[in-house]
Amino acid sequence: MLDRLVGLAMLIVATTVFLYYTTWTLLMPFVDQGHPLHDFFPPRVWAIRIPVILILLASAVVGSFLSVVMIRSNRKKAAKARAVEAGKKKA
């Protein structure tokens, strides 16, 4: 039951962010600059900057995770190879 609640919360958050961003980028350019609706949105330049920053941050996190996994995997393989070599020398 908790997983459905968390899933519903994630769906609501994603839908809200999508609707806000879509309104901001697609509808607000057609609204007059003096309209009070512009007070709810940051300047349009951030409509490009925010996704670029998020993509760079996400790729850095994914790249760091992959490098850590590859380094650990390589260490395990090296340790196994040393153990095999040590076993051959004893025999």
Automatic annotation (TrEMBL):
Keywords: Endoplasmic reticulum, Membrane, Transmembrane, Transmembrane helix. It comes from the Eukaryota. The keyword Nuclease does not apply. Belongs to the DPM2 family. Pathway: Protein modification; protein glycosylation. InterPro entries: DPM2 (IPR009914). It is a multi-pass membrane protein. One of its GO terms (molecular function) is enzyme regulator activity. GO terms for cellular component: dolichol-phosphate-mannose synthase complex; endoplasmic reticulum membrane. The chain crosses the membrane at residues 5-26, 46-71. Its main location: endoplasmic reticulum. It holds the Pfam family DPM2. GO terms for biological process: dolichol phosphate mannose biosynthetic process; GPI anchor biosynthetic process. The keyword Cytoplasm does not apply. Regulatory subunit of the dolichol-phosphate mannose (DPM) synthase complex; essential for the ER localization. PANTHER family: DOLICHOL PHOSPHATE-MANNOSE BIOSYNTHESIS REGULATORY PROTEIN (PTHR15039). This is Dolichol phosphate-mannose biosynthesis regulatory protein. Component of the dolichol-phosphate mannose (DPM) synthase complex.
